[in-house]
Design goal:
- The protein is mainly alpha-helical.
- The chain has a single domain, classed as Four Helix Bundle (Hemerythrin (Met), subunit A), CATH 1.20.120.1630.
- A two-stranded antiparallel ribbon has the order 1-2.
- It comes from Candidatus Collierbacteria bacterium GW2011_GWF1_44_12.
């Protein structure tokens, strides 16, 4: 109902920015805070729901093939070549949880949206990492990390792949910790348990660190500069999220308790 009211007001609010063809009454038309949040969350859904459902269906399709072919189970006997199927399992669970979070909002689920990122810059750095906008980011920064990275020497290859599985496991743990509150650009209540008990941005640091490892077989000055660029984007995502969430008293308490952004007792 709040969203419908916000949409009905849309033409009048837009026209209120014009200096002609509107009356003084029209110029005074604004959205309430509830209406702004409802409208912004509708935009979040409009963008992310198709993406997450697409990711989920694609991951489920790959997972189904890996189970039927036995690749998922062969991972234990041929970890170096099959480990990526475990990563796909993790990403399948992750995208399904996020899809649910975007699709459903309820007081019973304790995931009612309290606020949505209010700044253009906050939206820009978030959308820069998702299609179709990440194609523009790729064009300028490039992309050198590969899930199927491989080193000929198993003494090097196996520990690095174990590290990647561990890091993506933390990434999934962060999503599970968010649970029904999972969604970008929103405050649906402050999560302080699970992975978020230890650092404020466990998903970002684990994913970006995994990318650095996956880049190593293709390492070059250009690849390093590229991944520094991607790392900066995720750092900016963390900073803009914190600035948004600092409007919530619960988050201000959380920051005092969980002092580190990325690595416990370090940064």
């Amino acid at each position: 109902m709040v969203l419908i009211k916000a949409i009905v007001k849309l033409p009048r609010v837009v026209s209120s920015y014009s200096y002609s063809f509107v009356s003084k009454i029209e110029k005074d038309v604004t959205w309430s805070n509830e209406e702004k949040v409802a409208l912004l969350f509708a935009l979040v859904k409009l963008f992310y729901v198709p993406i997450m459902l697409g990711f989920s269906l694609n991951n489920l399709d790959i997972l189904n093939d890996s189970i039927k072919s036995g690749n998922l189970f062969e991972m234990f006997s041929n970890f170096r070549l099959k480990y990526v199927h475990l990563l796909n399992l993790f990403f399948t669970i992750d995208t399904l949880i996020f899809s649910f979070g975007y699709l459903f909002e309820s007081e019973k689920l304790k995931n009612v949206v309290k606020s949505v990122e209010p700044t253009f810059f906050g939206w820009a750095v978030a959308l820069a990492t998702y299609p179709p906008f990440n194609e523009v980011t790729n064009k300028y920064l490039g992309w050198y990390s590969r899930d199927y990275f491989f080193f000929p020497d198993p003494v090097v290859d196996i520990p690095l792949k174990i590290a990647v599985v561990f890091l993506i496991g933390i990434y999934l743990w962060a999503t599970i910790s968010l649970g029904t509150k999972s969604s970008n650009l929103t405050n649906r209540g402050i999560v302080t348990w699970g992975a978020y008990r230890w650092v404020r941005h466990p998903a970002y640091i684990s994913k970006v660190t995994a990318w650095w490892i996956m880049m190593l077989p293709r390492i070059s000055l250009v690849a390093i500069i590229s991944l520094i660029g991607w790392s900066v984007i995720y750092y900016l995502r963390a900073i803009t999220e914190e600035k948004h969430l600092m409007n919530d008293a619960d988050y201000r308490k959380y920051i005092k308790k969980t002092r580190f952004r990325f690595i416990p007792n370090l940064i």
